[in-house]
Design brief:
Chain A: This is Sugar ABC transporter permease. Chain A: Its main location: membrane. Chain A: Keywords: Cell membrane, Membrane, Transmembrane, Transmembrane helix. Chain A is mainly α and about 350 residues long. Chain A is built from 14 helices and four strands. Chain A has one domain: ABC transporter involved in vitamin B12 uptake, BtuC (Orthogonal Bundle), CATH 1.10.3470. Chain A has a two-stranded antiparallel ribbon. In chain A, strands 2-3 form a two-stranded antiparallel ribbon. In chain A, strand 2 and strand 3 form a beta hairpin. By secondary structure, chain B is α/β, with parallel strands linked by helices. The longest helix of chain B is centred in the middle third of the chain and has 16 residues. Classes of the chains: A mainly alpha (about 350), B alpha/beta (about 500). The interface between A and B is medium-sized, with 31 and 37 residues.
Chain lengths: ~350, ~500
């Protein structure tokens, strides 16, 4: 856990303490369990987003993909009687395929990731709405998938705390992602390509493949999150389901230390970023703040967090500069601002 | 010589623990061309920053037209007629020439909107263009101009501010020979107009060519000033390093072996009608000389698989190889130390250890994961071997000096099994001491059986280090030289396409 993760954790604890002080219901088991469930679902697609941001890209279609794949998943198991395991595999494959397409367009066709995934955002949303004729997709009367429901949306009692399975899923995903990003060769390549694609290529890294892989991983994880979210909500209005989720994901990644220039970010940070966002959401509910102010509160806190971080970085740099006047500060000061 | 209008008296600059400038005196007379030379870190740039008002001196005073002051602000320096032409140019390539020259000072029409008066703007720029003999129009988009032309734009900017002194920081480091010649003529023209020039350079022949005086700094102190009559490369080098530079050339331990790398009729994108053939033998340093733009870097990029080869073949140990990517080249043991280490050689804000292991991470695995202990251990070994000056291999590469950065690039490849090492400008922007260490390493490598292809635009380096020289001219080899034929004259003749 680096300094940035630590300060994020402190921020979460401070916000949590303030909320508890004003409204002790924050600490009720039911409330914590529900918040944890949100963290589980949002954390997975935030990690997905982080992979793409780390290689210097961006993925804007997360919310639309969650809507489209969610609709398809429910349609497959409810209306087409497809075995849920098969449907599960098909949806994950669909997510991977979307990632492959995005990555290929970015690397081989040299289209900017913002443009590629913005088009994706529009296309998948439109496809989801057309597919259901803008009707809500859900489980009909009597439709029941006990195993699947237990696995995805169930909770297990752990020491008296009903632990949502989405959290278990997030822990597994985060652990694998952590090892992959921070300990494996592939992780090194992801960061190297994000920091300086040209130098990575000159070091023999097939940077195109690395970039495409990042989008594929992102697509696959998003598909997984789409299933969890579909099973949790149990009904999907394709026009609004998952909308703005890409922004939650980007916000969590940025809070967690990812630089939008690429090459920075940690998995622990992204998970903590997700926790903070959900705690804030919870804060709005518990403190009786009008829910219309939801986004405004989140935006303000993120801005304050980023400003505070920037202030700390600058102060630290000022003290190091005083101590070491000869240090070469010319080397990419902006990147360094995000490095800590 | 007229009276000096600008005097630096007893200027010192100390940072905690470091003396950057130690009681330096400098006088500048109108129309005087002063070359400021010295190793990297000698204090040249700090001195110029004091002059430009960017750095406040810790002691001493500055006298302008007889008026004494402790320091300048940037604005006061400009007022005093001091202009800076930076090494990395501060221009906007989305504007045209005139827009750049008068940025922030555009003539405007009257009225509340303050629209730019383009006619007046161009009218003001035109005489400046004529004065410098520039071959472009005031409305030429900057993006379409060459680096040398950008420099002229910077100089025009200085002149438009009525500069009496123009400071240039390594103005020729990225110029071709022709462009350098033209810059020398511009300097002569400014001198004739009474404008003074101070230029920082590493190229001693330029000092010989145009300086009235050379001022030598070493470790923050002024160790000597040479008048025009006293100028000679040997004298300058002696002052710069405080000792005579020993003859660079170290002969190989054994006669070169058979050819390791054969380039047969190679065609690159830049010169689709020309082909290059050359071979590098085991244990030799083949210098590749030529003017900037002669296609040497493009050839290196094609051999290393960065750019596709448009024709011809590459043979390694006699067997044809297909190199479609840097990765393929690396797998064959062909490594490149690129021209621009910051953009293509290194991840600047990543640690030394991680930079070194990057091309060969699969050798550092334990149970599929990167073993950082072994990574650190290797980095430490390379630090000793290459004398990389850093207390800690976890330091970010970007905080090292140029010479040490270059050693890290070299350490990447030396941790593997090089068969052919291609160096593109191995010592550009590196101080004399680190240069010598890199040359020593080159020789040790060839003595260990590596074949080295060294692209260099530095005449001293090409002649002093190579065992053999190939010269390129417009995308083709114009000749080979053996050591007995080595001379600046011969290399230049071939470089401009003549025969010897």
């Amino acid at each position: 856990m680096n300094k940035k993760d630590l300060s994020l954790l402190v921020l979460i604890l401070v916000v949590g303490a303030v909320v508890t002080f004003i409204n002790p219901r924050f600490l009720l088991v039911g409330n914590l369990s529900n918040t944890a469930n949100q963290v589980g679902m949002f954390g997975i697609f935030s990690i997905a987003e982080a992979f793409v941001i780390i290689i210097g890209g961006i993925e804007l279609s997360v919310g639309s993909v969650i809507a489209l794949l969610g609709v398809l998943f429910i349609d497959l198991i409810v209306n087409h009687d497809v075995n849920w395991m098969l449907a599960f595999a098909a949806i994950i494959a669909g997510g991977l395929a979307i990632g492959l397409v995005h990555g290929t367009l970015v690397t081989r066709m040299h289209i900017q990731p913002f443009v590629v995934t913005l088009c994706g955002l529009l296309i998948y949303r439109g496809a989801a709405r057309y597919y259901t004729e803008d009707a809500t997709a859900g489980f009909g009367f009597g439709a029941s998938f006990p195993t699947l429901e237990w696995l995805t949306a169930g909770r297990t009692n752990v020491l008296g705390f009903p632990l949502p399975h989405s959290v278990v899923a997030l822990i597994i995903v985060a652990t694998v992602a952590w090892v992959l990003l921070h300990r494996s060769v592939f992780g090194r390549y992801l960061y190297a390509v994000g920091k300086n694609e040209e130098a990575a290529r000159y070091s023999g890294i097939r940077s195109d493949r690395v970039v495409i892989s990042a989008y594929i991983i992102c697509g696959g994880l998003t598909a997984f999150a789409a299933i969890l979210i579909a099973m949790y909500t149990r009904s999907i209005s394709p026009a609004v389901h998952g909308s703005f989720y890409e922004l939650y994901a980007i916000a969590a990644a940025v809070l967690g230390g990812c630089s939008l220039r690429g090459g920075e970010g940690s998995i622990i940070g992204v998970v903590l970023g997700t926790v903070l966002l959900q705690v804030l959401q919870n804060l709005v509910n518990l403190l009786g703040i009008p829910s219309s102010l939801n986004f405004a509160v989140m935006g303000t806190v993120i801005l304050i967090g980023v400003l505070g971080d920037q202030y700390l970085v600058q102060r630290r740099r000022a003290t190091t500069a005083k101590a070491k006047p000869q240090a070469n500060v010319a080397a990419a000061p902006l990147e360094r601002a995000n490095a800590e | 010589m007229p009276e000096p209008f600008l005097e630096l008296v007893d200027i010192s600059k100390t940072y905690p623990g470091v003396v950057a400038l130690d009681h330096v005196d400098l006088k500048v007379a109108p129309g005087e061309v002063i070359a400021l030379i010295g190793e990297n870190g000698a204090g040249k740039s700090t001195l110029m920053r004091v002059l430009g008002g960017v750095v406040e001196p810790s002691g001493g005073l500055i006298r302008v037209d007889g008026v004494e002051r402790g320091s300048f602000t940037v604005g006061e320096a400009i007022q005093a007629g001091i202009a800076f032409v930076h090494q990395e140019l501060n221009l906007f390539d989305n504007l045209d020439v005139a827009g750049n020259v008068f940025i922030g000072r555009e003539p405007v029409h009257g009225g509340p909107l303050r629209l730019i008066d383009r006619k007046a703007l161009y009218a003001k720029v035109r005489p400046l263009l004529e004065r410098l003999g520039a071959d472009f129009e005031p409305d030429a988009p900057l993006a379409e101009l060459s680096l040398a032309q950008h420099q002229l734009v910077e100089i025009m900017k200085a002149l438009s501010l009525d500069a009496r002194l123009v400071i240039m920081d390594e103005p020729t480091s990225s110029l071709t020979l022709t462009e350098t010649d033209r810059l020398m003529r511009v300097i002569a023209g400014l001198k004739a107009d009474g404008v003074s020039i101070i230029f920082i350079t590493h190229r001693l022949n330029e000092v010989m060519q145009c300086a009235d005086r050379a001022v030598v700094l070493r470790d923050g102190r002024m160790v000597g000033a040479l008048t025009r009559a006293e100028l000679s490369p040997a004298a300058m080098i002696r002052l710069m390093i405080g000792r005579d530079l020993r003859s660079l050339y170290v002969p190989p331990a054994a006669a070169p072996g058979e050819a390791v790398l054969d380039i047969v009729e190679a065609v690159t994108d830049t010169y689709p009608e020309r082909a290059v053939s050359l071979s590098v033998r085991r244990g030799e340093i083949l210098g590749l000389a030529g003017l900037v733009g002669s296609g040497r870097t493009e050839l290196a990029r094609a051999i290393f698989g960065v750019d596709p080869l448009r024709g011809g073949a590459i043979r390694l140990d006699g067997a044809p190889v297909r190199i479609a990517s840097p990765r393929a080249a690396i797998e064959h043991g062909i490594y490149l130390v690129p021209e621009d280490r910051k953009s293509s050689g290194l991840l600047l804000d990543v640690s030394i250890a991680e930079n070194i292991s990057l091309p060969d991470l699969s050798s550092y695995l334990r149970l599929w994961l990167v073993n950082t202990a072994r990574e650190t251990e290797n980095a430490r070994r390379q630090r000793e071997r290459l004398k990389i000056r850093t207390p800690d291999v976890e330091t970010a590469v970007g905080s090292l000096s140029g010479g040490n950065q270059q050693k890290v690039v070299l350490a990447k490849w030396l941790s593997m099994r090089p068969k052919v090492l291609i160096f593109d400008e191995p010592t550009r922007g590196i101080d004399v001491g680190a240069k010598q260490e890199i040359y020593d390493m080159l020789r040790r490598l060839t003595d260990a059986g590596v074949a080295v292809l060294m692209i260099s635009s530095d005449m001293e380096e090409v002649i002093g280090v190579s065992d053999r020289i190939a010269v390129m001219h417009e995308g083709a080899i114009s000749g080979f030289l053996d050591r007995s034929q080595f001379s600046e004259h011969n290399v230049l003749q071939l470089a401009v396409g003549h025969t010897i």
